[in-house]
Amino acid sequence: MSDGVHLQDIGKDYDTVTAVDQVALDLPKGTLLTLLGPSGCGKTTVLRMIAGFVDPSRGKIVLDGTDVTRVPPEKRGTAMVFQNYALFPHMTVFDNVAFGLRLRRQKRAAIANKVKAALDLVHLADFAKRYPAELSGGQQQRAALARCLVIEPRVLLLDEPFGALDRHLRESMQTELRKLQQQLAITTVLVTHDQQEALALSDYVAVMNRGRVEQFGPPREVYDRPRSRFVADFMGVSNVLAGRVRVHGEGRIFEATGYGAFRLSENGTEGEGDALLALRPDALRLDPEGLPGVVHFSALTGAHYVCEVRLDAGGELTLNLPRSDPRSAPGSRINVSADPAEAVILPA
Amino acid sequence: MRISQLLLGFPAALILSVLFGAYAVFFAVGLLTAVPNTADVAGPVTLDNYARFLFEPSYLAILWRTLWLSTLLAVLTAVLGYPVAYFIARTPSSFLRRFMLGALVVTMLAGSVSRAYSWLVILGNRGLINSFLLWTGLTDKTVPLVYNELGVSIALVHFLLPFFVLTVFGAIKNLPTSLEESARNLGAGRARVMAKIVIPLTFPAIAGGLAIVFSLAMSAFVFPLVLGGGRVRLLSNFIYDQVFVAFDRPFAAAVSLIFLVVALTALMLLTLLQNHTRRLAAGGFGGKGA
């Protein structure tokens, strides 16, 4: 078995409840995988199984070619940044970071050098003598990260690491983490419920739902080509329309009940029949030939307005309009069509 | 406003003056002398009672014995009680947790006298344990389990355990499990997690529990009386004898006050230890490991 993280059909049952089932993921060494899903989807359980805090009921966990399924957590060589950071409150930052090295019985001088290097890496060199309670949230997180990096783990595990930070800090910490991860080429598994975070940080994303992986792939693929309604919803597709795929002249169209017809791309492989059409707000545009409707609500999100449109046929769509476009105002009559290249057909 | 504040302070002042007044009475009565063959006390004011105790080696021996036994029992209770508290705090079964806490509270609330006699039934020469040992033929004569310090100690540890466990349980329960997981994740085995994380971080509670248990052991009266059978001489029983056998209330009062001062000194030492906990805990136990 090659290096990296390999989960072979792992599952976990609690009494009669199946928390995780048939999770099979292969993560090449040095890459970052995000487990993405709503709370209760089993993503944290998977992470805790990799760390060894939860015994899988089924399946195998292989880290860098070694089967660690029955290995206790202290011998797995994983390092985890906990949601609340779990820094030892009775130790200084230096002692916290040195903790793992001391357990590995390294020489005093070597420990001091490695701790200093790790603290430099996370810009905490000046805080070595402080106690965790004397650090800000962001500093605590960096200390927790340094404590993990210093032991050079086989895999770095991050449990919602940015959840407790305010938005501005969160974004800069995300960037910092991703740069470090790439620079050190450290295999990483991150758990989050934030799809933006998943897209921004990952080499691979596994979208989880009810204990199973619904879709696994590079972030762009998961974003552009969701394979189920759940993934589409979770990746921020706000328009999912029920209807039928039909051949129409040279190409194919999607007839959405209560909406009208949308042209599909030429190279689609879907056959005729009942299906769902997923349209991101970005996939919709103003088009004089498009379906007529009235803007009934709009909200500014920054670069653009998110507008809700009620079509004359009855259905509702959400689309983005540029800030400067006067037609974003409620009450405007507009005509809408979809970019065939961005329209995704999902199984009904 | 000021008058209402004074009024609010009045009940507290009253209660405190009654409580501390008792100690003042001890001190005052200790300065007097018993009138022979009566329960009366009379002047002149003298420090003789204090001197009598402090310069009599056999009396001081009782004091040291009491201190030593209380220390020993407090430590033994802590060593036995801590794992129990840890188990109760960390068991995933809430039924087991509630059951064990319930059992501890019931034990704590059960009367001392009834429990002392229960131990007599269990430990006595014709008691459950000795009957069993004789029946199995493991011994051919009874093992002396009562009317000695062993019997008193067994019963006292049983009496002290709930106090220690309930004091420490809360502190362990409040310690986030992620700290233990994080330590294991970084390479520490279970024993090391205990020594470096759990015990140092709950040390204030351990010191507090030790203080409670030590005070209770020092002032234990019924268990030494019943299970010691007059052969185990601890200070509280000695004071009792001075009052009800020798009818020497001034001497009893003087000994009580000396006892109180010694006990408070011991507790203050424990508090000092508690205050230094943070520094002690910083390195954990068992050296720096490097």
Automatic annotation (TrEMBL), chain A:
It comes from the Bacteria. InterPro entries: AAA+_ATPase (IPR003593), ABC_SmlMolc_Importer (IPR050093), ABC_transporter-like_ATP-bd (IPR003439), ABC_transporter-like_CS (IPR017871), Mo/tungstate-bd_C_term_dom (IPR008995), P-loop_NTPase (IPR027417), Transp-assoc_OB_typ2 (IPR013611). One of its GO terms (biological process) is quaternary ammonium group transport. GO terms for molecular function: ATP binding; ATP hydrolysis activity; transmembrane transporter activity. SUPFAM superfamilies: MOP-like (SSF50331), P-loop containing nucleoside triphosphate hydrolases (SSF52540). Gene3D superfamilies: 2.40.50.100, P-loop containing nucleotide triphosphate hydrolases. Keywords: ATP-binding, Nucleotide-binding, Transport. GO terms for cellular component: ATP-binding cassette (ABC) transporter complex. Residues 5-235 form the ABC transporter domain. Belongs to the ABC transporter superfamily. This is ABC transporter ATP-binding protein. It comes from Acuticoccus mangrovi. The lineage of its organism: Bacteria, Pseudomonadati, Pseudomonadota, Alphaproteobacteria, Hyphomicrobiales.
Automatic annotation (TrEMBL), chain B:
It is found in: Cell membrane. One of its GO terms (cellular component) is plasma membrane. Keywords: Cell membrane, Membrane, Transmembrane, Transmembrane helix, Transport. The keyword Oxidoreductase does not apply. GO terms for biological process: transmembrane transport. Gene3D superfamilies: MetI-like. InterPro entries: MetI-like, MetI-like_sf. It comes from the Bacteria. The chain crosses the membrane at residues 12-35, 67-89, 101-122, 150-172, 193-226, 251-273. It is a multi-pass membrane protein. Residues 63-270 form the ABC transmembrane type-1 domain. The keyword Chaperone does not apply. Belongs to the binding-protein-dependent transport system permease family. CysTW subfamily. PANTHER family: INNER MEMBRANE ABC TRANSPORTER PERMEASE PROTEIN YDCU-RELATED, INNER MEMBRANE ABC TRANSPORTER PERMEASE PROTEIN YDCU-RELATED-RELATED. This is ABC transporter permease. The lineage of its organism: Bacteria, Pseudomonadati, Pseudomonadota, Alphaproteobacteria, Hyphomicrobiales.
